[in-house]
Each structure stands twice: as C-alpha cells, then as structure tokens.
Write a structure and sequence with these properties.
The protein has 188 residues and is an alpha/beta fold. It is built from six helices and seven strands, in the order βαβαβαβααβαββ. Helices cover 41% and strands 19% of the residues. It has a seven-stranded mixed sheet, sandwiched between helices.
Length: 188
C-alpha cells in the first residue's frame, strides 16, 4: 500500500524535520515539492537554508499554486513525494485568487482528489492554526476555515496523521514507524 502521511503542528514544532527524516527512509528518487515563494529577503534566506539541509537527497520542484497538476506531471515514479507546506500553498491561493473563493475551493478539492489517487507515497506538511484566537478579520476567518477543512479532508484519506509539538510526534491516526526514530533527528 502506498502510504499517505499528513504531518501537522504549530510553527517551528519540528514538522519539516520529521517529514524529511521519514522521507529519507525511502530509497531515491525522492521528490520535495516546495510551495514557498521568496517574496522577501528573510523568506529567500529561509528557502536557501532548507535547500541546503536537504542537500542532494531530493529532487526539489517549486510550485506555489498549481500543486495538484504538478503532482500529476512528475515525469517518473518517485519513491516518495514530500509537500512542504500546504499552509503556504493555501496562502498563495488566497493571494492569487483574492475574492474568488470558488477558484480556491476548486484547487483544494482537486488536490485532495489527486492525493487520494496517486500511486506513490506522500508526506504532506501543514499547520494546525485552529488552536488560537479566532481572527478578527473576515479574510483571516476564511483562511482558517479553508485550511481547517483542507486538513480534515486530507486527514480523512491519509493512512497516517502526526501532530508535532515541541519536536515530539503524537500519532493521531495509523502506526507511524518513523515516529520511533524521531529522537535521533539532529536539531540545529
């Protein structure tokens, strides 16, 4: 069975490190689908740092908007695909399609459909942002609602769901063998 894993948690909770470690248990070729855009100097430096951490262990593909279609167009059969991160991807959609909720909903529904049907293992990273204060602005509330629904839909079809907190994985669904080696992940 081709596993689908969803990793969620707060900012700097260890999600990416856990995902990379899990993906390294697969043989090459591994694909890393990056959704971040270098819109400012800090984000550009962050992207470069993450690329350096992955070294040459992954083929990195950058796709900020058309994620589902990019997954379908991978021209070979990877051993695993890591998506980092769905929260940034959804933010990109909100930026590109401001006010066009149907365009956003169509792309999120398409992503869930594609994830459910592709044959290779996938490890997806998202944020759990529903534990805080309800945003006071309509756009913020729409974003929280959309990410919460996307996370729920992906969690429903994934074999494994992991909540990261303080670098510690908590298994919410499935039996994640990668959690057993979480303590051996180097920190910076």
């Amino acid at each position: 069975m081709e596993k689908k894993v969803l990793i969620t948690g707060g900012v700097r909770s260890g999600k990416s490190r856990f995902a990379i470690n899990a993906a390294l248990s697969y043989t090459a070729p591994r694909v890393f689908l990056a959704t971040a855009e270098p819109l400012d100097d800090e984000m550009h430096a962050r992207i470069l740092r993450h690329q350096a951490e992955r070294k040459d262990q992954f083929l990195t593909i950058e796709e900020p908007v058309e994620l589902a279609e990019k997954i379908l167009r991978i021209g070979f059969n990877p051993s695993v695909v890591v998506i980092d991160c769905l929260t940034l991807w959804l933010g990109n959609l909100f930026h590109r399609f401001a006010g066009n909720d149907s365009a956003i909903q169509n792309r999120t529904a398409r992503l869930v459909e594609v994830v459910g049907h592709v044959q290779h293992p996938m490890i997806m990273i998202t944020n759990e942002i529903g534990l805080g204060v309800i945003p006071d602005q309509p756009l913020g509330r729409r974003f929280v609602d959309a990410l919460g629904m996307l996370n729920q839909e992906l969690a429903r079809i994934c074999h494994e769901v992991v909540l990261m907190s303080c670098g510690i994985p908590k298994i919410l669904k499935g039996d994640v063998e990668h959690a057993k080696v979480a303590d051996s992940i180097p920190t910076h």
